[in-house]
Amino acid sequence: MKEINCDDLPHIRVLAGNNESGPVFESLPARQIDEHVYELLASPGLTLNLARGDIINIENPLAQAQVLKRGGNFCIHIYADEVPQTAVEQLADAVQAQLGGTLDGQYEGNLTFSVPSRHGIYNINGPFDAFREATGVEWYFANIYVNLEDDDDETLLNWWLEE
């Protein structure tokens, strides 16, 4: 998977969730396909259930983006106050070399990766587990669960089985 520089690309706002102050939005690089329909060019760092390559509809800006077609990537989130940059670089290199994935975003210790689903959900753990063992920082799939509101519900979407 080729890395892209998203800085100069058009961005869209997607609802990431709500907090005490109201809606929280995330700005994501995207390519417009039709009115309100976009292809995501990077996986989000906050918004759940989306990944690089997904075709989404954002007609209602106050609702979660509607996934029209999956782009074939798992979105992996890592949240930490800080991570040594050498560990980030080692993980990014391992994900690229072993899985053809990319580091799509980094903000301090928060990292977002896109990994092609062709490897299967249970075959991508290697580099991420090694990172967890080296740093003590856990990683998470961000686009595989049916119920985003219940952390205890681990019902899978299984969209990658249809790829």
Description:
This protein is an alpha+beta fold. Helix content is 16%, strand content 34%. It is built from 2 helices and 9 strands; from the N terminus they run ββββββαββαβ. It has helices spanning 85-99, 125-135, and strands at residues 11-19, 22-34, 37-40, 55-57, 66-69, 73-78, 102-107, 110-116, 139-141. The strands form 2 sheets. Strands 1-2-3-4-5 form a 5-stranded antiparallel β-sheet, with no helix packed on it. Strands 7-8-6-9 form a 4-stranded antiparallel β-sheet, covered by helices on one side. Strand 1 (11-19) and strand 2 form a beta hairpin.
The strands making up the biggest β-sheet line up spatially as 1-2-3-4-5
Mean pLDDT: 94
Tell me about the biggest sheet? 5 strands, antiparallel
Tell me what portion of residues adopts beta-strand conformation. Answer: 25-35%
User: Helix content range of the residues, please?
Assistant: 10-25%
Helices and strands in order, then pairings?
Blueprint: E1 11-19, E2 22-34, E3 37-40, E4 55-57, E5 66-69, E6 73-78, H1 85-99, E7 102-107, E8 110-116, H2 125-135, E9 139-141
What labels describe this entry?
single chain, four-stranded antiparallel β-sheet, 16% helix
How would you concisely characterize the structure shown here?
With 163 residues, this protein is α+β, with helices and mostly antiparallel strands.
